Amino acid sequence: MAGSIRKRGENSWEIKAELGRDPMTGKRRRIFKTIRGTKRDAEKALRDILRSIDEGTFSAPSKITLAEFLVQWLQIHKAQVATTTWEWYDMICHKHIIPELGHIPLQKLTPLAVQSFYAKKLDSKTLDGKGRQLSPSSVRHIHRVLHKALNHALKMQLISRNPCDAVEPPKPQKKEAKFWTPEEAGQFLEAIRDDRLYALFHLALGTGLRRGELLGLKWESIDFAKGTLTVKEELVRRRRGTLVKEPKTEKSRRTIPLSQETLDVLKAHKVAQNKERLLLGDQYQNNGLVFTTVDGRPLEPTYISGDYFHRMIKKAGVREINFHALRHTHATLLGAAGVPIKAVSERLGHSSIAITGDIYSHVFSEMDRQAANAFDTILRKARVR
């Protein structure tokens, strides 16, 4: 980077340093600074500035606010992430961060201001828009987005340090997974056997698929001859409507063996769906999805896991759980039946066995206890001999 010194008065010097192009606007940037003292003082000040520029620790004075920066960051970031991810970033910035911190100049944002912002989010009863207190997990999501955005500002030399680095986000709260007993799962399926989407709930309990994986499942991904199902896509909610896309992680792309009963249920569901398609003719939207509305359109995820599912629970007269707990039920029943944790983990599509063990520690701890007792039994039998 180039720099120069110009005498302004008897004991006054003006130093100028070239900063290159503004990463946000593309305009040429220069910094001018007046130094009072000797020429040697001015030369030292210029060297310090040029060295900080070379080291990437220099941030030119700027009046841009956090809100202005976040709007520009979102625009730049839009082409770099998935549509649903960007919409999530955009919602967090405009709903949470900008209303509280947006007025602060970017270079004056302090760790204390950010920490106070998190505390306020945790204390407020209305900040999620539904009259409920935000959970520590939700505030951690806000922290991740703000930290990511400010890391970009740091990289672009708009700030000299990321204030989020000095902030402690709320610790995650571990919640014990809820699940049904085998009797409750059986009672639920028996009660809804005549429902149009019976196969969806049967498959959820029989495979542990996530909601998006179930609703994004296509017939081409089911191999009835081999008795397997391959997870290739998932259906996710967008700000407006839904989107079928590939799973985020490689582990989520997996092939799962299906039981004969599950295969029979899916075959019956396919026959019923074909009848609906023939009945509606050209009005049917054939997207190849296994689970759809009557006219072939993708199902709305929140409706299926919300009102629809809870109506089925009420009909069956079983314990209230959320839709994701069907996945927990599948995993818990497998663990209780002695299925190895590695097999359960691969079936669920977890990124590691450690995650499976952490979520279902209550099941596998009991299995460890049974293993210890079995060891005692083996030794006693050996002594008798």
Give me the Rg, rounded: 29 Å
Total count of helical runs of at least 4 residues: 14
The number of domains: 3
User: How much helical structure, as a percent, in the residues?
Assistant: 40-55%
From the helix content, strand content and strand pairing, which structural class follows? mainly alpha
Beta-strand level of the residues, as a percent range?
A: 5-15%
Q: What is the strand arrangement across the widest sheet?
A: 1-2-3
Report the principal-axis shape: elongated
Characterize the main sheet.
3 strands, antiparallel
The CATH homologous superfamily of the largest domain is named Intergrase catalytic core
Given as residue ranges, the uncertain stretches (5+ residues, pLDDT < 50) are none
Mean pLDDT: 85
Q: How many beta strands in the DSSP annotation?
A: 8
SSE string, helices as H and strands as E:
EEEHHHHHHHHEEEEEHHHHHH
